[in-house]
Design brief:
Layout lengths: L5 E5 L15 H13 L4 E4 L3 H4 L8 H16 L3 E7 L2 E2 L2 E2 L17 H18 L5 E8 L17 H18 L6 E3 L3 H4 L7 H6 L4 E5 L5 H5 L4 H4 L1 H12 L7 E6 L11 H12 L5 E6 L30 H15 L9 E5 L18 H11 L5 E4 L6 H7 L3 E3 L6
Parallel strand pairs: 1-2, 1-10, 2-3, 3-6, 6-7, 8-9, 9-10, 11-12, 11-13
Antiparallel strand pairs: 4-5
């Protein structure tokens, strides 16, 4: 942990996307990382493909692990730290699950004892391989793996919140065994905060692992409802950062804005840089922000088929490594923050969040776009209030409020 906010990118290889692991080209990786470092960023988030690295439950390919280490070392040569997501899992609308969990071998990736043991072995192996690298930040269990646990996934492995917590605890422990003392965490897409029946809960995100990760995507109904320049749209990432703190047990638990991007056509290409600036500047006005990691480093090449249209244009750079306006915006913000870092003051007004039971949040849709908490937060923000969020169960807890610098509490019904 450092006192300054970290800035990075989710590394999407310019050649072959994440399929580059099948034809690993270290020179191409080095060229990509040169372009990332040139923006002034200090870290990347890396995505091994689970079926490529562990094609059989008892086979974790040594050569694939060696290539991951080579990538990490190439990053270190360019001043870039590395976070590694193990279970991919899900990326840009595509699922990558090994054959030993599917069809004739169909079994739950969350509860089958053999599968979970295999996952733990895999994560431990990756962590061990990087444990002695000074630029290794730590492991993220996987990318938005919660999407496999409930609808709208077409074939989910349904589980309970208790089973989700057990799975997270086991795999976080495996990461810690492999690389003791590193920053190990888990990361879910925003259904964890917004979807009533999602078994991965806000409490899991805000209490398990070294930091809380939030992923901010305004195609979730926010931009559709509020428009490209709406307060709720430009503050969505900041909202998730503040919302997560309502469930945190430590008053100043770090929050990592681990994914955020400018999705077309809701954010047209010609406006991506303005959305980028507003989103990052607003997030920087949140205390306890560990870092901002933009999605993504490079565009998906148009030579690859069947991606949703928006996925082709999310990069800070093109697939030819040409810096786009959003990339120049990020680079400027990074320079400014290193020269004159913004030190946000405490948010003294807190909006009450009543999602039912604190552990399972059965009514957390009040926090989703259109929900009472979401819309009240946007209205307060538009009025310049800089709201925080506090659980209803803590709204009268003087010690908790004082620890967070909160002096006033309001309910959604009181917001006009």
């Amino acid at each position: 942990m450092t006192s300054r906010v970290r800035f990075g990118a989710n590394y999407t290889p310019s050649q072959g996307w994440f399929h580059h692991w099948l034809d690993f080209d270290l020179d191409a990786v080095r060229a990509d990382l040169d372009s990332v470092a040139a923006l002034g960023l200090d870290h990347i988030r890396v995505f091994p493909l689970w079926p490529v690295f562990q094609p059989n439950r008892t086979l974790i390919r040594p050569r694939a692990v060696e290539q991951l280490v080579l990538l990490a070392d190439a990053a270190a040569e360019r001043g870039l730290d590395v976070n590694v997501d193990g279970l991919q899992g899900h990326l840009s609308s595509f699922d990558f699950l090994p054959s030993w969990t599917q069809t004739w071998h169909r079994r739950s990736i969350f509860t089958d004892p053999d599968v979970v043991t295999g996952q733990a072995d895999y994560l431990r192996t990756l962590a061990e391989a990087l444990a002695d690298r000074p630029n290794f930040i730590g492991m993220t269990i996987g990318n938005e793996v919660n999407q496999f646990s409930a609808g709208p996934h077409p074939d989910p492995d349904r589980i309970t919140p208790v089973q989700a917590e057990r799975w997270l605890d086991l795999l976080l422990a495996a990461c810690e065994e492999g690389a003791p003392g590193k920053l190990h965490l888990h990361a879910e897409y925003d259904a964890a905060w917004y979807q009533d029946d999602q078994p991965f809960t806000p409490a899991h995100s805000a209490r398990l692992g070294a930091v809380t990760a939030v992923h901010s995507w305004v195609f979730n109904g926010t931009a559709q409802r509020h428009g490209r320049t709406g307060t709720a749209t430009e503050h969505h990432a900041a909202y998730l950062v503040e919302l997560s703190k309502a469930w945190a047990e430590a008053p100043h638990r770090p929050v990592w804005l681990q994914e955020v991007g400018a999705p077309a056509p809701l954010v047209p290409a010609e406006h991506a840089h303005t959305f980028t600036e507003a989103t990052v500047v607003n997030a920087l006005d949140c205390e306890d922000l560990w870092g901002v990691t933009w999605w993504c480093s490079h565009d998906v090449s148009r030579t690859l088929a069947d991606f949703p249209e928006l996925e082709y244009s999310l990069g800070l750079m093109t697939s030819d490594r040409e810096v786009k306006p959003a990339g120049r915006t990020i680079a400027r913000i990074v320079r400014e923050q290193r020269e004159r870092p913004h030190r946000p003051s405490p948010r003294t007004t807190a909006l009450v969040v009543d999602a039912g039971d604190d552990d399972t949040a059965p009514r957390r849709s009040v926090c989703a776009p259109g929900g009472a908490v979401f819309e009240a937060f946007a209205r307060l923000t538009a009025d310049g209030v800089r709201p925080a969020a506090v659980l209803a169960s803590r709204a009268d807890d003087a010690a908790h409020l004082a620890a967070r610098g909160i002096t006033e509490v309001v309910t959604p019904d009181e917001v006009r």
